[in-house]
Amino acid sequence: MFMPDRASACVLLAFRAAHGRHWKAKLLSLWSTGRDVGEADGACLRHLRNRAGPSWLRQLTPRRWRAIERLAAPGDPVLAAVFLDRARAFHRGAQIGASIALAPTLHLLAISCELGLKAHLLGHGWTDDALVRDIRHDLVRALDEARQLGLPAPGRPLTDFIKSLGPAYAVHRIDALVAGGYACDIGTVLCETTQLLDAVAACLSPAMPGAATLPTSSSSPSA
Question: How far apart (Å, rounded) are the C-alpha atoms in residues 136 and 138?
Fold first, then answer.
């Protein structure tokens, strides 16, 4: 489903605050008569009309509104950069271990996915405390929340990897899962995890500092 960018999300929230409980009807009326351009931030409202349209406005659920509120929040680009840097480090570890042992490699990949997805969330209104409280180590939910906040869908192999491995990872049961016969195309998943982390970096840019300007942190991210 269409999601606005941060600037458009801020405009939409401001319009809702200004027009009260019937704001949707007001905006639909403005869109249908062309009077939206006369409003404050009218150009942005027109842009939303052209990209999303009335059906999108009517279908905004409370959960999607929460995502828009997060989009409008400033986020934490510094901590997001730290998480993404750590995600890439764990991914490099998984690449090294891929030819040695499956279970440790899967665990490193799961950590990489978790930190990468959390980096996206941190850049789009989530706080570290909220991640610890509401996401914890749930890869499936982290991916779903990141998708709500504009992260492109990963390929099917990585999506299947997250769905199948995620529940075991959340309860520290990857060894048991592998002992039970779990297998995946590790090369493809490694490749798609690289693409996931690159997509996170692209979504965070330019708000996120570049890799060369990552801050030095004495504490580890709370994966």
Answer: 6
